[in-house]
Design a protein that fits this description.
12 helices
């Protein structure tokens, strides 16, 4: 009996690193097939010794493949296990390998967007942006380090899970685990994005609703303040005591809206954009439309 060939950890690390570039040769015909085959080259070289066998292996992995770039890792792990079984004489044909790939890439692709694009990335980005807006260099560094550490760790451990589970992992795909994970991640992602609306979506209506002259003593009398820094100090003290900065109290439309529900305009604008997305309106057209409307409203004095 011939010696059994075994994929080493070093081989799997090489596949893991190469899988980072799985979208490097994306094309409209077979999408990620080039990056997929490129990722598996170290393992295929290890498993197959002749030029003919290696060429046949590459050919079957140049078939159509498309999945979330990070969720392709567990499929790579399962595929490596199947190729290892085949190289050692197990009855695993091309149809079986391609069938496992196609059966896994569909449900796994649906997990990637809500987990990574709608949950992990916005959370890290919001934290990093807050630090950066405060003038801290830690913001961009934190984003770069944290994001890459999370995605690379996920890709490695999910690839190892797929390799160790082998073809048996496909049995779990028939249950409701993927649906539960997708639903939970989507809910968490929408919650995080909803909490960021009030912070990042700012709409201010500038029309003046009322102008009321205030009683003397309720505002800072700038003409009677001491000169130099003593005047600045006195103004700050009076403001801390609750005095207004101006003799006339101006109330804008935005002030009234904020008393009703702070951030209401931004929330309604977000709902409008979501509605337009459901109606298949292109995000590019929405951005251009919002830009044009914003300029027009500012020109007429509404915003």
């Amino acid at each position: 009996m011939a010696d059994q060939v075994k994929i080493s950890k070093r081989d799997r690390i090489a596949v893991w690193w190469r899988s980072t570039f799985i979208q490097g040769s994306w094309n409209y015909e077979r999408m990620q097939n080039g990056g997929w085959a490129y990722s598996l080259i170290p393992v295929l070289k290890k498993l197959y010794k002749t030029k003919e066998d290696r060429a046949a292996a590459l050919k079957r992995h140049l078939e159509f493949f498309n999945c979330h770039p990070y969720l392709a890792s567990p499929i790579l792990g399962v595929t490596m296990a199947l190729e290892e079984e085949r190289a050692n004489g197990a009855p695993v044909d091309d149809v079986a390998i391609q069938g496992v790939k196609v059966g896994m890439m569909g449900p796994l692709a649906g997990i990637g967007d809500p987990v990574f694009w709608f949950t992990v990335k916005p959370i890290i980005g919001a934290i990093a942006a807050s630090l950066a807006m405060g003038g801290s260099i830690v913001g961009p560094i934190l984003y770069f380090v944290a994001w890459n550490a999370i995605r690379m760790a996920f890709m490695w451990y999910s690839q190892e899970l797929g390799y160790k589970a082998g073809s048996k992992i496909t049995e779990d795909m028939s249950g409701g685990l993927l649906q539960d994970v997708t639903k939970g991640a989507s809910i968490l992602g929408m919650f995080i994005l909803g909490s960021l609306i009030n912070r990042w979506v700012v709409v201010k209506f500038t029309p003046v609703v009322s102008s009321i002259k205030q009683q003397k003593g309720s505002y800072i009398d700038w003409g009677n303040l001491p000169n130099n820094m003593n005047g600045v100090k006195e103004a700050l003290i009076q403001q801390a005591d609750g005095r207004a900065l101006s003799m006339v109290k101006v109330t804008t439309l935005q002030d009234n809206l904020d008393q009703l529900i702070p951030g209401l305009a931004g929330l309604l604008l977000t709902f409008l954009c979501m509605y337009l997305l459901r109606k298949k309106v292109s995000p590019i057209w929405q951005i251009l439309g919002l830009f044009a409307i914003g300029v027009f409203f500012h020109w007429i004095g509404l915003m």
